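## retry 2 of 3
previous attempt timed out at serialization; input unchanged, resubmitting
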Amino acid sequence: MAASVRFIQCAGFRFDSPAWDGPERWAAARNQDLWQTFQALLSLCQAEKIELLFLTGNLFEQQYVRQETVERVAELLGKLEGTKVFITPGRRDPLTISSAYRLTVWPRNVHIFSSGIKSVKLPSHNLTIYGAGWTAYHQEKSFLDDFTPINDTTLKIMLLHAVVDSQGNSQGLIPIKQDQISASGVNYLALGHLEGWSGIQQAGKTVWADCGVIEARSFVDIGSHGVILGEIREESTCIEFRELGQRCYYEINLTVQSQESLAEIAERIIKELSPDERQKNLYRINISGDKLEIERLVSPLQKLLMAELPFVEVIAHAEPDPSYVDLPRPSKVNIQEGFPTLAQIFSGKLQTRLSEAVESENKEYWGVVQKIGMTALGQGRIVDED
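## retry succeeded, writing output
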């Protein structure tokens, strides 16, 4: 029996998602970055002789994913010699009827977890791997509510796309509790919901960590992005974080002085960055000052900076005008990322119908239409509404 087992844990590729912060011209480069990161992950598995690869959620963006993307991912994973792959479908790619995971035949070394916590035993490693995938766009209860640990002598690892209660909560995501982790009896709990690396955590005898998303997508995704390398032994769990993300997002806030020339402003920005940083990372320059002055500077400053910073956008942040009154805006569907989906458009139109209905029977009618339509379109997905 193996004395230990080595693994890599990662999450949040979201292949085919259009949600990248910055100008549209960045999107093609960022999509290519994502594939380079995926290839770097596969190369790391081979170089480190990794036995187990854990993909803990959001491998795809279900609303936009293409069949050729799923087939390409499956083919590449199938080429990992000596590495078994375990996938937990997440909040953005749940294992629904029309799931991305049903668009191809997966290679024999890939196991995809479905509803409810199930286990896979690897006798050669004296190991049991537990996992559960999302099968709808929202949870009815916490993954660990009904979990009963099995008392045997195997090493135990659990994979979940979930959040721990101390990390906060969001709509459609029911957190697991620290005492549930402690009572699970697993040696290591691999999570994949947070935007950033959680650090090494422990509840009772169970070590747990969230790897965060592998590639930053916005200017709020600060910090390092990459994978967790781990080794599980009967008496200990050792994990480390390895950065793999291709680029980082940085915001720079700059107050423009009236006497400064365009060249002087650009020099102030450039001199703070190393040559490698300038070529690699993505920058948003927020310039503030006199409203008329900074709006005039935006376009020429961006053109000047692009000679040194391939990925830069300049935005004017004028001082607020005290005489300006922000009038109420009509309600609309809240499109948080990318482009409006059919479900979001449908929901917005039905909200208009409901607000215009006068008689109670009409309101009841349109309410029923909304429920039936959203069930058909969303397969359980919740559409946010203002």
